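Batch job 17 of 40 flagged for manual review because the log was empty.
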Amino acid sequence: MRAKAANVTAIIVALLTCPAAAQEVSVHALFEGKALMAVDGGKPRTVRAGETYAGVKLISADSEEAVVSVNGKRQRLKLGEGIYSTVSLPGEYATVTLTTDQRGHFVSSGSINGAAMRFLVDTGATMVSMGLEDARRAGVNYLEGTRGHSQTANGVAQVYKVKLRDVRLGDITLNDVDGLVHENNALPVVLLGMSFLGQVEMRREGNSLTLTKRY
């Protein structure tokens, strides 16, 4: 019995001390039904929709973007974009690492209130900001929010301050996040502002940005 207990203890220790599974995925070329992808810094390989390469499944692809499944979670990647996804062990902090796109921006897929979104990391934005279309898809009743105005690159825009039930990026999910809905400004992406970023630790290294949930 003691030997069996010792074996069980050894297995538990091994599980707790092994590193979290991680996969870094980047897209180098896009075609209809296939994509040229690199995983964990390996040699790029052409993968067809439905195929799995190094644990990453290509769900679909066209000339605009690829949809992949990384660690069981779907991600949308455009040409030149990448995401570093980790599976956190119990007791670890949730972490997501993003890589810059061709323009030097950090863009990634995520969700608001369970609705899929494309995020652009923007430390200059006070809050998570979105256009009307994205707000409606997320079920945000912006008309019940606080009405105000915001200065944008295109001038003054009417906005509504709202509470977002949850905002998710990779393994990081935050609840009751302040958001802004721009009524007359069709934002092409959701700006991931400081109402989200201020609640995570950010570490920039070269073309990578690592976000870690604080608690």
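Reviewer: the log was empty due to a logging misconfiguration, but the result itself is present. Residues 8 and 14 are 10 Å apart (CA to CA). Unflagging and moving on to job 18.
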